[in-house]
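Minutes, project check-in
Item: structure for the 73-residue chain
Input as provided by the requester:
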Amino acid sequence: MANDWTPERRAKQAEAIKRWKPWERSTGPKSDEGKEVSSQNGLKHGMRSREWLERQREMNDLLRACRDRLERV
């Protein structure tokens, strides 16, 4: 399935983008909601996030305390 992008057209488009420099006009999110959404852009699954690791530590501490209590009985 051809997309009609010849090497010449691709080179011409690349040059145009380099002239326009759209990345220099990007200012990022303005609203609090937009900032909240964009803060999660790099999140893949969250299994290594600070919050997840803290919850895992709390759960492990709770399980350890329960196990220790059951061993004393």
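Outcome recorded: The mean pLDDT is 91.
No further action items on this chain.
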